[in-house]
Amino acid sequence: MPVQAGTCLVRWETVCSEELIDREVQRMAKAEKDKPLGAGKSSFDLIDSQAVFGELGLQRGSTFLDVACGRGDYTLAASKAVRKSGLIYAVDLWEEGIATLQEKAAAQGIENIEALVCDVGKKIPLETGRVDVCLMSTVLHDLVQTGDVDGTLKEVGRVLKSQGSLAVIEFKKIDGPPGPPISVRLTPDETESLVLPHGFRKKRTLDVGLYNYMMTFGLT
Ligand SMILES: C[S@@+](CC[C@H](N)C(=O)[O-])C[C@H]1O[C@@H](n2cnc3c(N)ncnc32)[C@H](O)[C@@H]1O
């Protein structure tokens, strides 16, 4: 039977688009499987942002680092506090989160955010003594699970200026939701004992909403 050109074209396009869909489904399944612990979750909508940003003390021109920034809700808020002369670094292992942050920053015309994909337990790609204020929001308990706490805090201590400060936000050890299971939540005492061995001294613990507390540290 003679082949009709139009029919072939339609069939070929169908095969191609089925293959493309298959590939995209596989890519999405892999991305979902490889998601770092806690990816896609944020505490930003739960916290009292005035209390958090008041305590962080970001100034015009400060350099801020958001460790495990996710989609960067805290990053975007911090970029407003440091104004155009300040610099914001945001790092996360989750590529989709970093891509979303870059898109949001571009859409809002924000130019002082550098968002990078990296494993903070291995290396934070910044020079030593670069950062005034570092935030680790609702990630320390995840790093306990993955065994990345020590590597991360060592890197945070390295990139902070000698007068710099670290703020850790965690979920209160109460039954959720919202938040992770109570078994993985950290009490303020547990948070303190994870952080202090890495050359930090505790400054303050404060309540930053119904579900969260924040603890601040300086370098010893
Ligand atoms: C619960 S989310 C918190 C996100 C953000 N701090 C917030 O509160 O909006 C934890 C984040 O840690 C990231 N993460 C987990 N392990 C990591 C690692 N080893 N290096 C970098 N990021 C990591 C996850 O991808 C996720 O975005």
CATH-wise, what's the superfamily of the largest domain?
Vaccinia Virus protein VP39
- Helical fraction equals 25-40%
- The Rg value, from CA coordinates, equals 21 Å
As residue ranges, the low-confidence spans are none
Number of strands: 7
Overall, the morphology is globular
- Counting DSSP H or I runs of 4 or more residues, the number of helices is 7
Small-molecule binders here are: S-adenosylmethionine
Helix-strand makeup class: alpha/beta
What average pLDDT do the residues reach?
93
Order of helices and strands: HHEHEHEEHHEHEE
Which second-level CATH architecture of the largest domain applies? 3-Layer(aba) Sandwich
**How much of the residues is beta strand, in percent?**
15-25%
How many structural domains does the protein architecture include? 2
Describe the strand arrangement of the main beta sheet, using strand numbers. 3-2-1-4-5-7-6
Give the termini separation. Answer: 85 Å
The CATH class name of the largest domain reads Alpha Beta
CATH topology name of the largest domain, in short, is Rossmann fold
Major pleated sheet: 7 strands, mixed
Q: How would you characterize the overall build of this protein?
A:
The chain has a seven-stranded mixed sheet, with helices on both faces. It is α/β, with parallel strands linked by helices and 220 residues long. The chain folds into two domains: 1-34; 49-219, Vaccinia Virus protein VP39 (Rossmann fold, 3-Layer(aba) Sandwich), CATH 3.40.50.150. Helix 4 (95-107) links the parallel strand 2 (87-92) and strand 3. The radius of gyration is 21 Å and the shape is globular. The chain is built from seven helices and seven strands. It has helices at 5-33, 49-56, 73-82, 95-107, 140-146, 149-159, 188-195; strands at residues 63-67, 87-92, 113-117, 131-137, 160-171, 200-207, 212-219. The site of S-adenosylmethionine (SAM) has 26 residues, from helix 3 and helix 5. Residues 36-39, 41-44, 68-70, 73-74, 92-94, 97, 119-121, 137-139, 142, 146, 148 line the site of S-adenosylmethionine.
